[in-house]
């Protein structure tokens, strides 16, 4: 079968491409700049790529840009979306590419009669940012949606971009009878295939590169290999539907630092939080839907070790 992966050069997408090629799929991969070897070489080196990987140039903000890549595909994995926090103009840099880009991709999908299902990479950022309180006995699940007003009030622009993009995707799917599934991972860690540093791996790099403080923040964490597998199962299993929260564990960065110190006693980890704001909430996330895909999570300790080994191997650490 032929499938399309948007933003194929990215951290999560590269793993999706690798696993799809391993399973025998023909992959039409969209990248912004097919002539940049940093964005394509690691994909072209994947097993099966020389026979079954095709690269296409596409930009989220260009109308119809994805038509050619999506034409003739049975499934589409839409992962492309900017993920970084240091933005000057959130509307232009994050919200427009996330939201308009998602609609742009979905329009191409609905034009193409071959597309049977679209899997979009959303985020826990589109799940947990609302007025509901999170405490250790609260179990977050797929019925939770982030509230754009809460994101705006906190200037949480990336969270806003993912919330608006997912909302737009569900509305489009309803109006145009698109079979849509969303994957909502928390902070993704694990080995990097691409030669560049992505935002979630950079968070771990900052904990091992001599910084004096760690973020005073609690994150959910999940391994990139589990995230990629979940995307593929969500496409392959006819029974898959709706949203899938992907969180192996919820840990404050102070806990992450302790685990790194236990695994790597020689590493100088940061000793204190970046601020002393109180009330950083811990919470639980339901595993039921993820398990219904027939998958189990890679434990956090394994994921963090894989991340650090990969950062070292790539020369970042
Ligand atoms: P990367 O930064 O590695 O990948 C982002 C991809 O989006 C890149 O391929 C990038 O292309 C592409 N992209 C960005 N802007 C545009 C644009 N205007 N036109 C076309 N492509 C564009 O990040 P991740 O792999 O981490 O993120 C992939 C997806 O996963 C995103 O949707 C992100 O929101 C989501 N996600 C990530 C999490 C994480 O912790 N990593 C957690 C939850 C969700 P280029 O390489 O050319 O810049």
From TrEMBL:
Short name of any one Pfam family annotated for the protein: Epimerase
Residue ranges annotated for the NAD-dependent epimerase/dehydratase domain, each copy included: 3-240
InterPro entries per UniProt: Epimerase_deHydtase, NAD(P)-bd_dom_sf, NAD(P)_dehydrat-like
UniProt GO MF annotations: oxidoreductase activity, acting on the CH-OH group of donors, NAD or NADP as acceptor
Highest taxon of source: Eukaryota
Keywords: Oxidoreductase
SUPFAM superfamilies on file: NAD(P)-binding Rossmann-fold domains
Transmembrane segments: none
Record PANTHER family: CINNAMOYL-COA REDUCTASE CAD2, NAD DEPENDENT EPIMERASE/DEHYDRATASE
Stated name of the protein: NAD-dependent epimerase/dehydratase domain-containing protein
UniProt source species: Vanilla planifolia
